[in-house]
Amino acid sequence: MSDPIPVLTIDGPSGSGKGTISRLVAQRLGWHYLDSGALYRAVGVAAGWADLDLDDAGALVRCTFDTDIGFRESAEGDLRVLVNGHDATDELRTETAGAAASAIAAIPEVRAALKDRQRAFRRAPGLVADGRDMGTVIFPDAPFKVFLTASAAERADRRYKQLKDKGVSVTMDGLLREILARDARDASRTVAPLRPAEGAVHIDTTGLGIDAVVERVLAVVAP
Ligand code: DC
């Protein structure tokens, strides 16, 4: 029997640098990349377009099944996300979409409905899977697992700089409160709570530059 296609799972809280690091590591390895948060965000955006109530679990589950989510690379090489055929990449990154995604992600039927879509990303020569439950639930048999963290203050600071660059006005205090609230919600939900997978290599990115983190993650795959 041939070896299973390798997967490197990179889990951790928002702002730990997962997205940037995972994309760079996938590029370096020449592997595919799964941004699992984008799937939850896409359903959040679709729910917003349909004006659904975030407390109506039944409607959100139906919306998950009905939403077509596609990924494609633009001419400039960045990843675009299509929701029901519309390019929703920028809308996906808003705080509103993030908050909707976090609420939606707590519904077990939604998580179950997205399972196979995530596993379909496992294609040769390999996959870097970025999320919260990649190593625990979606790819428990992955040979390489990383758990990225950073202090809440550093995560709020990174987010603050990103938003300021985009011209969005926010306060550090407000951001820190939001980050702590989302951490608590993601870690305390009964289904697939955020926690390190057994055997995951923990990397604290506080005070580390992107290149240093990329090298540490690559060392997990090829020590
Ligand atoms: O990583 P992100 O910020 O794009 O994720 C958006 C939300 O989706 C976040 O609140 C947690 C949730 N999520 C999840 O529950 N499981 C995943 N594998 C990825 C994201």
TrEMBL record:
It comes from the Bacteria. It is found in: Cytoplasm. It comes from Luteimonas kalidii. This is Cytidylate kinase. The keyword Zinc does not apply. Belongs to the cytidylate kinase family. Type 1 subfamily. Its EC number is 2.7.4.25. The lineage of its organism: Bacteria, Pseudomonadati, Pseudomonadota, Gammaproteobacteria, Lysobacterales. ATP binds at residues 12-20. It holds the Pfam family Cytidylate_kin. It catalyses: dCMP + ATP = dCDP + ADP; CMP + ATP = CDP + ADP.
